[in-house]
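tool_call: predict_structure(chain=1)
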Amino acid sequence: MKKYMIKTKRLGLRLLEKNDIKYLEKLESDPEVKKYFINGPSTREQAKARMSDFISYYEDKGLPCFVMFELESNEFIGRCGFVPAKTGEIIVGYLLHKKFWGNGYASEALIALLEWSKQNIDADYIIAFALADNTASQRVMQKCGMEHYKDDTTKGVACSFYRANNQ
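tool_result:
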């Protein structure tokens, strides 16, 4: 039985651990899954380095990254969680295997994360962003009550930024 920090109707979210590379390697290296990520697909070594960053964000700043499982099947769905922005803001994000796209899992996870953050993260707002042409992810943010507040570039790529009040 997995120890979930957050449970929803269909999802179990537990803290990312070092041995979770077995789950994340395939997800992070999939060109279709990472199509809308600025840095694109990751090699195994890049995924391991990113995992180390995620783990240290929790250890150093209390910002968790979770691996998501479907409760009914125990199947790995993806990852989600929080990272610090260089601006001092807190970013929430999610990444799901394409098999699970279009089933409401991203919205379910994002709603749970935004609720969790109100009790556990000291920030006025939680932000999220998506590439300007990633309308599916923007719809998820809107559906979860996040407000569009600016269009800007990140690493030279046009993005739409959303935020949710964390009070």
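agent: The longest strand covers residues 76-84. Proceeding to next step.
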